[in-house]
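Quick log. Single chain, no ligands specified.
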Amino acid sequence: MSMASSLKCSSYKKYEIRKRDPNPKTSALLVIDMQNYFSSMAKPILNNAITTINLCRQASIPVFFTRHCHKSPADYGMLGEWWDNDLIFDGTVDSELIPEIGQLARANEVVEKNTYSAFQNTRLQDMLLEKGVEEVIVTGVMTNLCCETTAREAFVKGFRVFFSTDATATSDLELHEATLKNMAYGFAYLVDCKGLQQGLFGNEIN
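-> predicted structure:
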């Protein structure tokens, strides 16, 4: 059974500890690393990611897209050693956003990063604060690496964090669910497409 099919029958409710809806007036959506390099993981959640983006657009919630890429060995950090230099290099097809996501991203909404956290060595925090953002909704890939690291750092920086259960993905279900359990315990409110629709607009997706 694939991770995608497993997720369909796996409810995040078993991990949910606290309930809250995002405030559209103070929220931003973070779409993490939905790039060609990660297409095998990203494609199964593509519809949910697009649904989440569209819901946030409808609610006038700002959306930011991260694009992980490396330009020279100087920015590899520990990732070069850890992944045997199997990295995403700027200017390659792998580094580009998946076409269906790329067409939704405006140029001033794309944040380039070179490590797991979308906050490190980027202007993301300033961009959020400039828009009066106090809450972030995290989606994208990989659940347990860049999504989780970004969510944890957002929490430490004082942002209220919402973590998508059905618009995030990683290499296997066990790692995905481990992150959901960790997020719910100490860092984030869990949300999915239906819950987000209901929380923002008062009705569910049919």
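Confidence is low (pLDDT under 50) at residues 4-10.
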